[in-house]
């Protein structure tokens, strides 16, 4: 198998288009971005083998991933899933031995900024050693095609906006961000030293939203502090108000500005990256995945209120330590070279996030108060008081309602 794969890689370097790729290995596949990306991969015709250790995602009773069960429902296709920790190299090795893997998308990481400052060693071990294990196993099996989940956090405080991929990196203010920066540097070194590697680093801006079906979304097992989930918690009545960190920044309305991107746009960015790797031997290339639009906290809040017809009470307090003022992407490189452009609007990000939130108040851990009925070919599903009527997605929900998933 190793010899075969090496031959394939040489073929690739020789410039042949690797149209025969079919199997993608996805680490962290049960997580937020991974699960949405798998929908796009399956829709694009790839077979998917996913692993996750459930450090930050919900596990089922038999070690299955409920998020991926729902992905199967959405796509009508199956996902091969293994509960596997990237720190468990022998297990990773075994999975690679049992499958012919063409390329890897590496999402698995711990990502809580605050937590990373409290337990830095855990973050360095999980994110960096996990990545080293993965790279070593890939190399042993002659698989050199990789898409890596990086973050705009590697830029630190921007000198110019919108920010391009050429902007210097490394001036990072937190441990989580430093793990991303170190891995990027490591990937640069190995791709310079070993010509077989073909790697794309994708620097995500601020992913939000959920699949429009409302079947999958973000359901971390650790507490989250990002803006949109917090805003939704206030809108749903679980928290009294939103604290806006700083109202005196030099921005359109004094509040911090970010580049929010719909998670389904991010997902399609990965398919575009795989298409690129298939066609060209890049060694290593980095792309921003954002919309290019800077949106302030207050602008997001007002859009969220209008779309969801809710009120989000807020109070403006001190700036959050380590926060940057404004960050948004120059996306022209991804547009030009990947043929990819974000297409979802801010309204759709809010609408889809809200659908996921209201239809799954307990995330993947089960719904209550649900019903479904079909009449004359029309399906109506009521989940926790929200009705999905006669839409493409209503029919997908029906079995989950019956099973109480
Ligand atoms: P997530 O926590 O929902 O998903 C990551 C998944 O990886 C989780 O299911 C977790 O259980 C798993 N995991 C962690 N360590 C593992 C290990 N050692 N072995 C196996 N599985 C492991 O996070 P996400 O938002 O989907 O992020 C995916 C990737 O994108 C991460 O690398 C993250 O750093 C990066 N990223 C995320 C954001 C964001 O805001 N969500 C922004 C920029 C970059
Ligand atoms: C955070 C992470 C970053 C990660 C990114 C994407 C930090 C310091 N950085 O960035 O590493 O790559 O998420 O997931 O956490 N805000 C409020 N009130 C809140 C929450 C946030 O006003 O309760 C404001 C923030 O000050 C900021 C904006 O909302 O201006 C977005 O914050 P957040 O969602 O936490 O993302 P980032 O700070 O961009």
Automatic annotation (TrEMBL):
It holds the Pfam family GDP_Man_Dehyd. NCBIfam families: galE, PRK10675.1. Its EC number is 5.1.3.7. Residues 25-352 form the NAD(P)-binding domain. Coiled coil: none annotated. GO terms for biological process: galactose catabolic process via UDP-galactose, Leloir pathway. It catalyses: UDP-N-acetyl-alpha-D-glucosamine = UDP-N-acetyl-alpha-D-galactosamine. Catalyzes two distinct but analogous reactions: the reversible epimerization of UDP-glucose to UDP-galactose and the reversible epimerization of UDP-N-acetylglucosamine to UDP-N-acetylgalactosamine. The reaction with UDP-Gal plays a critical role in the Leloir pathway of galactose catabolism in which galactose is converted to the glycolytic intermediate glucose 6-phosphate. It contributes to the catabolism of dietary galactose and enables the endogenous biosynthesis of both UDP-Gal and UDP-GalNAc when exogenous sources are limited. It is an enzyme of class 5 (isomerase). Keywords: Carbohydrate metabolism, Galactose metabolism, Isomerase, NAD. This is UDP-N-acetylglucosamine 4-epimerase. One of its GO terms (cellular component) is cytosol. InterPro entries: NAD(P)-bd_dom, NAD(P)-bd_dom_sf, UDP_G4E. SUPFAM superfamilies: NAD(P)-binding Rossmann-fold domains. GO terms for molecular function: UDP-glucose 4-epimerase activity; UDP-N-acetylglucosamine 4-epimerase activity. Its cofactor is NAD(+).
């Amino acid at each position: 198998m190793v010899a075969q794969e090496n031959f394939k890689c040489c073929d690739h370097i020789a410039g042949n288009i690797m149209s025969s790729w079919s199997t993608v290995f996805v680490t962290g596949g049960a997580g937020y971005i991974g699960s949405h990306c798998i929908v796009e991969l399956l829709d694009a015709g790839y077979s998917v083998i996913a692993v996750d250790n459930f450090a930050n995602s919900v596990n089922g009773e038999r070690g299955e991933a409920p998020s991926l069960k729902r992905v199967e429902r959405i796509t009508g296709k199956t996902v091969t899933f293994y509960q596997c920790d990237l720190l468990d190299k022998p297990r990773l090795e075994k999975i690679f031995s049992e499958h012919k893997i063409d390329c890897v998308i590496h999402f698995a990481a711990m990502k809580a900024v605050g937590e990373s400052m409290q337990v830095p060693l855990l973050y360095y071990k999980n994110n960096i050693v996990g990545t080293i294990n993965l790279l070593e196993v890939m190399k042993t099996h002659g698989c050199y095609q990789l898409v890596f989940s990086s973050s705009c956090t590697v830029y630190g405080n921007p000198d110019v906006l919108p920010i391009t991929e050429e902007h210097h990196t490394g001036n990072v203010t937190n441990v989580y961000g430093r793990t991303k920066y170190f891995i990027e540097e490591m990937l640069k070194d190995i791709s310079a030293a070993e010509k077989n590697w073909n790697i794309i680093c994708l620097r995500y801006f601020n992913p939000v939203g959920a699949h429009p079906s409302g079947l999958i979304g973000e359901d971390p097992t650790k507490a989250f502090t990002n803006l949109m989930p917090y805003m939704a918690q206030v809108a749903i009545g679980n928290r009294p108000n939103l604290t806006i960190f700083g109202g005196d920044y030099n921005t359109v309305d004094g509040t911090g500005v970010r580049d929010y991107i719909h998670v389904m746009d991010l997902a399609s960015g990965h398919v575009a990256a795989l298409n690129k790797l298939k066609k060209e031997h890049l060694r290593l290339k980095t792309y921003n995945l954002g919309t290019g639009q800077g949106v302030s906290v207050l602008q997001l809040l007002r859009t969220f209120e209008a779309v969801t017809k809710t009120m989000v009470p807020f109070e403006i307090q001190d700036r959050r330590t380590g926060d940057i003022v404004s960050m948004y992407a120059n996306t022209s490189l991804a547009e030009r070279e990947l043929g990819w452009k974000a297409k979802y609007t801010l309204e759709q990000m809010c609408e889809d996030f809200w659908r996921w939130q209201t239809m799954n108040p307990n995330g993947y851990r089960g719904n209550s108060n649900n019903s479904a009925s079909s009449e004359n070919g029309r399906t109506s599903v009521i989940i926790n008081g929200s009705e999905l009527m006669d839409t493409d997605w209503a029919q997908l929900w029906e079995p989950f309602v019956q099973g109480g998933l």
